[in-house]
Design a protein that fits this description.
The chain is an alpha/beta fold and 679 residues long. It contains 25 helices and 15 strands. Helix 13 crosses helix 15, helix 17 crosses helix 19 and helix 19 crosses helix 21. The N terminus and C terminus are likely disordered.
Length: 679
């Protein structure tokens, strides 16, 4: 486990060291002094007959307190009688309280005596009955003070790290860094072998580790070690995992903290923690400092100004910028940071000299997902041979964290069914559970609704099967999942660029459900709400962002800076009318196209709908049996075929013949063979 940093140099001298116990002793002495200073009471013990004389003859008792359990009475003397009994140096009127104490026979008899004194007119003061003596009075008088002292001690102990969440040093170390230190004594066990995929990002991260292990190799050529690297990418892609791998591989001190650890309610604490972090890092150099979610402190300055007030976050960012690249030397300290909101970071933070490199950690592609599945399947008992490539194809857009969740969910499903190993159907059920939600077989649907859902989903399947660029079908079900009454699973093509026809085919397939309702049921329903939303956004993107409109070609109103356009649009009202017309035209054309395809394959659609009503689920084999084999080979299949060819070439380990220099074509052949191996 990592431990918080408390690496303060120990003093060598034998001088007196400050301790919090000194403060406790001073407070106790102060309270005791107040106790003795406030003791202005003057008390004298007398006999009962003398007490009665003071009451009856001298009329010098103004108040009587009877202690029933001790059989004592305490009388408060008047000023005239007190000045006669006590010397002037002990008693002065208005500055002291004079009392006499005597033993009484019993509280009942003494009460009778008091009644006699009242009848005689000798005593008319207050009579009070109490249990206990001086200690109870002391507790009653000073109980609140003692309670406050107790809570003060408890609070100071909590603030000094004695509580459950104490961090050592307490309120006096609130400006200290909260970074966790990983070194040889508490090394991280994650290595680069545990990071699947991300080959390009791993290459750059491994080079940073190499800088620290062998800096002479680079500095001899006049190069400088990069000061920082920023890991950028969507959530769950492995940014923090890469940082853990660096901590496990670098063999140098590794400081880790979150960007929110700099943010505090006290003014100046964030900047103080930044200074303390870099001070400790310089003492441990060469080392690595990792700041996760740096957008918590690195947001661009000037946005959402605090009405002219002091912005603590901006002060923290200013200190961070100064420490990363300021007048002070910072050699041997490499800064790693991670964020998924790089667009809101301050430009001064992103410049070279602070973060020399931005490493983009993207969502894994098909090959990367295969590798990630292999990593997460190490500890799972798999039943028979598992088609990992099929799982990778069925999880497009999944991050590494999502794939880990799929594997874990599959193991839970298998355990729920008392299986001894996790099978293929468990993984398919896990993917369905994560994408579509939990099945709701108890949801009540009428036969009419069931038929309408089957017609709708069969419309999607029929249209997509006959379009070249539409995604290949995997599974269609009319069992409600999540908020959907039916669901369809496809294998999306992972394209680097998307042609216009591919977007149109996707829109046409999406509109297939609504078109089938209109053609074969004679009515439309609200079941296509999500389809219409997706189609409308896609058509708008084609016209406004991608410049794919016939009337508005090569125009894009997309703002890549993320600042948008505020309250005004970057085009006129006339241009907005043309955009609306183009969006409506594109959607209408694809809707008519979907209806035309459904008319051409009406019988096949009816057969699919019947199968769905009976079995509630259909697969690729069912569609292939009705419509025949799909005539287009998907790009994903081409990628897998190319990947298999590359693995076959690597397995053969064919070494090209050496170049003799006799033929001018040999270098080109050698380069071609090298390219083939790389591919």
């Amino acid at each position: 486990m990592a431990t918080p940093l408390n690496n303060k140099p120990k003093g060598k001298g034998g001088g007196i060291k400050f301790s919090f116990y000194w403060m406790y002793a001073i407070v106790l002495l102060f309270i005791a002094g107040i106790w003795f200073i406030d003791q202005n009471d003057i008390t004298q013990e007398i006999s009962y007959s003398k007490f009665e004389q003071y009451v009856v003859k001298d009329h010098g008792i103004s108040k009587i307190v009877v202690y029933t359990d001790k059989r004592q009475a305490e009388g408060f003397l008047t000023d005239s009688l007190a000045s006669q009994i006590f010397p002037s140096e002990q008693y002065s009127a208005g500055h002291a309280v004079a009392k006499v104490v005597t033993d009484i026979p019993s509280p009942d008899k003494f009460d009778t005596k008091i009644d006699e004194w009242r009848a005689m007119g000798a005593f008319s003061g207050e009579v009070k009955y109490e249990r206990g003596g001086s200690w109870s009075r002391i507790f009653i008088s000073f109980g609140p003070v003692l309670l406050l002292v107790f809570f003060w001690f408890w609070f100071m102990k909590r603030m000094s790290g004695g509580g459950a969440n104490g961090g050592g040093g307490g309120i006096f170390s609130v400006g200290k860094s909260k970074a966790m230190l990983f070194d040889k004594d508490n090394a991280v066990k994650v290595t680069f072998k545990d990071v699947a995929g991300l080959s390009e990002a791993k290459t750059e991260i491994e080079e940073i580790v190499e800088f620290l292990k062998n800096p002479q190799r680079y500095t001899d050529l006049g190069g400088k070690i990069p000061k920082g690297a920023l890991l950028v990418g969507p959530p769950g892609t492995g940014k923090t995992l890469l940082a853990k791998a660096v901590a496990g591989e670098a063999n140098v001190p590794f400081f880790s903290m979150s960007g929110s650890d700099f943010v505090e309610m006290f003014v100046g604490v964030g900047a103080s923690r930044v200074r303390d972090l870099f001070r400790q890092a310089k003492e441990k150099a060469p080392c690595i400092v990792f700041i996760d979610e740096i957008d918590a402190v690195g947001r661009a300055r000037g946005r959402n100004a605090n009405m002219g007030g002091n912005d603590e976050r901006e002060n923290t960012l200013n200190q961070l910028l100064t420490e990363m690249d300021g007048f002070g030397g910072n050699s041997g300290v490499i800064i790693l940071a991670a964020t998924n909101r790089v667009d809101i970071l301050d430009k001064a933070l992103l410049r070279a000299g602070r973060f020399d490199r931005q490493i983009y950690v993207d969502l894994p592609d098909l090959n990367d997902r295969v590798s990630i599945f292999k990593v997460h399947l190490r500890d799972i008992k798999v039943e028979g041979e598992l088609d990992i490539e099929l799982l990778a194809r069925q999880t497009p857009g999944f991050s590494g964290a999502d794939i880990a969740n799929v594997c874990n969910e599959a193991a839970l499903i298998a355990a729920r069914h008392n299986k001894t190993a996790v099978g293929k159907e468990d993984f398919i059920a896990a993917v369905d559970r994560i994408i579509g939600g939990l099945e709701k077989r108890n949801k009540i649907t009428t036969d009419e609704e069931k038929r309408a859902i089957a017609v709708h989903e069969a419309g999607h399947a029929t249209v997509s099967w006959h379009l070249r660029y539409a995604n290949p079908l995997v599974k269609v079900t009319i069992v409600p999942r999540g908020k959907a009454l039916g669901a369809a699973w496809y294998l999306p093509e992972e394209r680097q660029i998307t042609p216009t026809q591919a977007l149109l085919d996707e829109m046409c397939a999406t509109l297939g459900g609504r078109a089938a309702e209109e053609l074969f049921l004679g009515r439309i329903s609200t079941g296509a709400a999500n389809d219409l939303e997706r189609v409308t956004k896609q058509a708008y993107a084609m016209v406004v962002y991608y410049g794919m409109s016939e009337r508005l070609p090569n125009l894009s109103y997309y703002d890549s800076t993320g600042q948008d356009y505020g309250f005004s649009k970057p085009y006129s009202d006339e241009r907005a009318r043309i955009i609306d017309e183009e969006v409506s035209r594109i959607i209408a054309e694809q809707y008519e196209r979907a209806k035309s395809l459904l008319r051409d394959h009406e019988q096949g659609h009816a057969d699919l709908a019947d199968v769905l009503v009976k079995r509630e689920v259909i697969f690729t084999d069912d569609v292939e049996r009705i419509f025949g084999k799909r005539q287009w080979v998907s790009r994903t299949d081409e990628i897998l075929a190319a990947r298999q060819d590359a693995e076959d070439v690597e397995a053969e380990d064919v070494t090209p013949p050496p170049f003799t220099g006799e033929s001018g074509d040999a270098p080109a052949d050698a380069d071609a063979d090298k390219d083939k191996k790389t591919t």
